[in-house]
Design a protein that fits this description.
- The protein has one domain.
- 81% of the residues lie in helices and 0% in strands.
- It is rod-shaped.
- By secondary structure, it is mainly alpha-helical.
- It is built from three helices and no strands.
């Protein structure tokens, strides 16, 4: 099933407060979806489900691309003096400030979750590498014994032929 691609509104010349609110709402929505995906990602890593993880990461990349577009659309607002913005009401301004704070909180939470997921993947990689090394070592030992056994058998055969 194809994941819907989120697109950011592009208020090219409109730097009004309603455009800002729309962009912040989009950002909040995208970050909330990313948080849910990060929770699923943690589960997939714990389950060693690499196929599911790759699918999820692909979908997550689409959200990240959309978030990047929103961030680009928000860039012009950063040079604007927040005190000079015209708001329809003080409540609307407060609501926007609360959404911005929630976005910042979600972003920090996502960073922590991503770092934990990366740490877990690293630990799992090291465990798998150690297991592979044990298998290689065991195979080497087994091969050495087999070679030693065949050398002894060859020596015994050689000695019985001469005797």
């Amino acid at each position: 099933m194809a994941e819907p691609r989120h697109t950011a509104p592009h208020p090219a010349a409109d730097l009004g407060s309603e455009s800002l609110v729309t962009l912040i709402e989009s950002k909040l929505h995208l970050l909330t979806e990313m948080k849910q995906m990060s929770i699923s990602q943690t589960d997939l890593v714990a389950q060693h489900d690499m196929t599911g993880l790759m699918t999820l990461l692909s979908r997550k990349q689409n959200l990240m691309d959309s978030l990047h577009q929103v961030q680009e659309s928000l860039a012009p607002f950063q040079s604007q003096d927040p005190e000079s913005r015209k708001w329809s009401s003080p409540d609307r301004r407060r609501s926007c400030q609360e959404m911005i704070a929630k976005c910042d909180e979600l972003l920090q939470h996502l960073i922590v979750m991503e770092n934990r997921s990366l740490d877990n993947m690293t630990v799992q990689r090291e465990i798998v590498a150690a297991q592979l090394q044990q298998n290689i070592d065991a195979s080497t030992v087994q091969h050495a014994y087999q070679t030693s056994d065949s050398d002894e058998t060859s020596l015994e055969s050689f000695l019985s032929l001469e005797g």
